[in-house]
Amino acid sequence: MVRVKYRYLVVNILYPEPPETRKTQLPDLVQVYSPTPDAFHAGLFVRLIREQVEELFGDYGMGMISSGLKINYWSPSTSTAIIRCPRDHYEMVWAALTYVTHLPKPVEQPVVMRIVRVSGTIKKAEEEVIRRSQQIIKRAKAWEGAGELPMLQSVEKVVEKERREHEVLARVDASGGEDMSD
Fold it and tell me: Which family does it belong to (predicted)?
């Protein structure tokens, strides 16, 4: 049997709104890296990718990516996702995400999908998500009014949770499959 190999795409969803439509005086960093609305979830994200691949590459593209397409990680608070797709056809998924200009029907908000990293392992993709979230927190804290931002508090909680999970996984790997922390 041949093992199917995958690539993991780390995706950031950015929300570039023109300055005249902003309701508050948030810094550009916080505005662009704002949380994703609750109406948009991982299931809609997979459907969005499949529809876009079908539009760009037809039935051939759908056949090549549909069996291995999966959202491994979705964080609406940081607007970040890790998408698993077949190694030989990850460029199709990348191209499809590049052409997404708005979220589907319940949300209908203009977006830019940015592929941050392509990785061969989920571990490296997770490390990249944690590193980028920490950078966003540092830049947002540098803004003078950052203490009152609920988005910043939400992101800090997610980063702390991911860091704890990553440490537990590292201990499990180091101990040969059993968590020795208890």
Answer: Belongs to the eukaryotic/archaeal RNase P protein component 2 family.
